[in-house]
């Protein structure tokens, strides 16, 4: 099994963590990336298998998959234990929806924040500070929603799941660009500590932290 991955790709990190959680052996192939050029040039295997030209791409024998959500669901069927989705059908559907919400709602302003702050600074340009402030406010509003959803649970879907992986990584990226979870959300900070203490998560976040430092 091969995983074509980006060193600072949140979506690649989701898959790397799932593979580690399930103890699935794999070969990690990092695609070219730089702070100025992004993911360029495109890796030939990514070009061949993913029409979106994005990582992650998973190759398992003659099967090639792209999109982190599809890959996570494949890995769950391939190696059912330990579970990364609830066993109950309804709870599993809610968990899938929450993972999708992380990718498309939580991460959307974070992605834009990276675009208006990180890349201009890397090019020596002035960032759009007004837009930065607006995006940070959007992220803070989402954190309110996430805190309400978590409530007093240890994990977002009851047990540790793909929803925790995705939301934790998005919160990690948001914090790195000045949009950390407010200290008043004590339940979210306790959740961050629980998820961040998992060896698979801690190793991957440490690797991404080093990669980010090398771009500064």
**Structural domains: how many:** 2
Count of DSSP-assigned helices: 8
Task: Pick out the low-confidence regions.
Answer: none
Helix content: 55-70%
CATH class of the largest domain: Mainly Alpha
CATH architecture of the largest domain: Up-down Bundle
Q: Spatial order of the strands in the main sheet?
A: 2-1-3-4
Task: Kindly summarize this structure in a few lines.
The chain has 216 residues and is of the alpha+beta class. It is built from eight helices and four strands, in the order E-H-E-H-E-E-H-H-H-H-H-H.
Structural write-up:
There is one protein chain. By secondary structure, the chain is α+β, with helices and mostly antiparallel strands. The chain has two domains: 2-78, Glutaredoxin (3-Layer(aba) Sandwich), CATH 3.40.30; 89-215, Glutathione S-transferase Yfyf (Class Pi), Chain A, domain 2 (Up-down Bundle), CATH 1.20.1050. 59% of the residues lie in helices and 7% in strands. The protein contains eight helices and four strands; from the N terminus they run βαβαββαααααα. It has helices at residues 10-21, 44-49, 68-78, 89-122, 129-150, 162-176, 186-196, 199-215; strands at 2-5, 27-30, 57-60, 63-66. Strand 3 and strand 4 form a beta hairpin. Helix 4 runs parallel beside helix 6.
